[in-house]
Amino acid sequence: MGAVDIIREMSLERIEKEIFLGYAQIYDRDQPETFYLNYYELAWGVPKDPYNDRHEPYPGNPNTTHEMWEKFLDLPEIYRYRTSKIAKLAEMDASKAIKALGANSDNVSALKEIVKTSKAMQGGKQQQTVILSYVKPKERV
User: Fold this and answer.
1) What pLDDT sits at residue 16?
2) What share of the chain is helix, strand, coil (3-state, %, to 5)?
3) Of all helices (H) and strands (E), which one includes residue 21?
4) Residue pLDDT, tens place only, 41-69
5) CA-CA distance, 74 to 1, in Å (whole number)?
6) How confident is the model at residue 95 (pLDDT cuts 50, 70, 90)?
7) Who's near 106: CB < 8 A, 6+ residues apart?
8) Rounded mean pLDDT of 8-30?
9) What is the C-alpha to C-alpha distance for residues 136 and 102, in angstroms, rounded to an integer?
10) SS3 of 46, please?
11) CA 76 vs CA 4, 21, 47, 113: distances in Å
């Protein structure tokens, strides 16, 4: 399930749904990079970093605005989707780093803590439902 599927399932006004579907298509197309971009970067792009040759510039998306990207990213369903994906990617990257470092490294315990934290983040971001009830005390006769 991607951002497009999420937007399709949401009940929004027709014009808002069409706009967000366009944003969702871009968001899905450019993954995983879009998970780490803010709304300004999604609209205007990220220039090439002269200090990091491995970093490819992100071109941005003409005909989109940072205001609409912000609204898109702030949709509760998209926010949950994004944070869940980032947590999963962080967990996988930490697992790879643990394997690369080997069992005797001092950094292994720190990376294991990152993995544990990311799993907690995934579980902690689930929407919880709390049901409150009130039972009226018995009246004495």
Assistant:
1) 95
2) 60, 0, 40
3) helix 14-29
4) 999 998 887 776 766 788 899 899 999 99
5) 18
6) confident
7) none
8) 95
9) 62
10) strand
11) 14, 15, 29, 28
Indicate the Cα dihedral angle 90, 60, 42, 39, nearest 10°.
140
Angle at 46 between CA 45 and CA 51, to 5 degrees: 165
- Average pLDDT over the chain, rounded to an integer: 82
Tokens of 128: 């919880």
| CA count, 13 A, side-chain hemisphere, 81 | 21
Residue 46 φ/ψ, nearest 5 degrees: -125, 120
Residue 77 has pLDDT above 90, yes or no: yes
Q: Which residue, chain included where needed, has tokens 């298509």? A: 25
Please tell me the distance from the alpha carbon of residue 29 to that of residue 22, in angstroms, as a whole number.
11
- Residue spans of the domains in the chain: they are 1-72, 75-124
Neighbour tally for 103: CB within 10 Å? 7
d(CA 90, CA 11): 31
The residue whose two tokens read 């898109």 is 72
